[in-house]
């Protein structure tokens, strides 16, 4: 039983690693040049602080997921893992939400503030960013599952 | 010892309630009319989906904090509290990050996307929103502390 539980958590951590790595790679490769009349228009992730933050959050998430996957079973650091999981989950949630908020303005614009949508000009770039955010969202959900799983495992024997 | 711990958690929950209520009230009252030449310009939180999301997240956080504060000690629902704390913390983090990302564009603009800053026109509104985000941030930090505290309390006796 304990072995099945361990394998399940390991699988979730491997999935979290995959999701954060994909999110980071898809975001960092999002780039498009577009010409409107005579003006060349370049869109890339580094033009938007929220996307840079999303990238950094997912790189930290990926490195952390990788380290935990290869943490020896007898390590003292396992004591900290649930607490660090909470912090990493919050970091990933924060990066994903900030990127999504900006991507939404890019897609729909905000007429009150006079911010025009840019996705009609750089459609491929917007799809790329959308893909990165979807992967980031998957990472967040996997970390949430991991946390609920840890809480269930640790708390249930105490409380039931 | 157990009593001191209980009081400490209760205090943190009361602070979380205060922070989320303040964040919601300050956001919902952010409103400014400004006239530039002959054009009247109105800014309010409901013009920005991210700010509406921030408000909803903080209202849910406030209602949850309130309910937990008055949950009877013998209730079966205490089993769910740590898991619900995780979900509420993620919701508050997400709302705060989305609102902050948009507020940053409002303050600094984004020249690449052609989005102009609007805070010069509606300075009072921007300060108001900034205050709401600061209170929201306080709520997030208090919930993080609560979570780390629960993890420390529950896991330490098992692991040490």
UniProtKB/TrEMBL annotation, chains A, B:
It comes from Camellia sinensis var. sinensis (China tea). NCBIfam families: A_tha_TIGR01569. InterPro entries: CASP/CASPL, CASP_dom, CASPL. Its main location: membrane. Residues 7-141 form the Casparian strip membrane protein domain. It is found in: Cell membrane. The keyword Transmembrane applies. It holds the Pfam family CASP_dom. Coiled coil: none annotated. Keywords: Cell membrane, Membrane, Signal, Transmembrane, Transmembrane helix. It comes from the Eukaryota. This is CASP-like protein.
